[in-house]
Design a protein that fits this description.
169 residues, mainly beta, Pectate Lyase C-like, 9% helix, DUF3060, signal, DUF3060 domain-containing protein
Amino acid sequence: MKALLASTFALTALTAAPAFAEDIVIEGVQLSRDFECSGQNVVIGGQGNTIALTGECGAVQVIGADHKVTFETARALQVNGASIAATGGKVGALAVDVTGNTVKATVASKETPAEVRIFGADQKSELTFAGAAKVTVGGASNELVWSTDSGVKPPSISTVGVDLKIRKK
């Protein structure tokens, strides 16, 4: 339980951090936009936005509710809200928190092992690991379906929570 609280506070602190001038900041309700990242960090907030990110993104933060986000590559992805769907190519690190979020991505970090943290409740994550990874799944009723690229060792997975479903695809 302490790990869950620490994770929640850490993620909240990250989302509360102000955006830098060179960041792409998308805030609003029911926006539909495409953006070329060009290495920039991206912050998506509000409710019900449909956002397509192309190219290489820095850190991508998705906060709020009911967003649909697609991306090609992100150095890190943080999903912190309710009913957010994030689908993409490769992420270097992943953090998912709050409730009812769906994430589908390939985890491939230049740093090894890649860090993946899934907390909150009712999260659904489908991840392919392209390299070494350390995964922590906590909270309640979260589901992780995972696979590895050919020749990649299974990730190290630790759990703390209730009704967690973790299975290899």
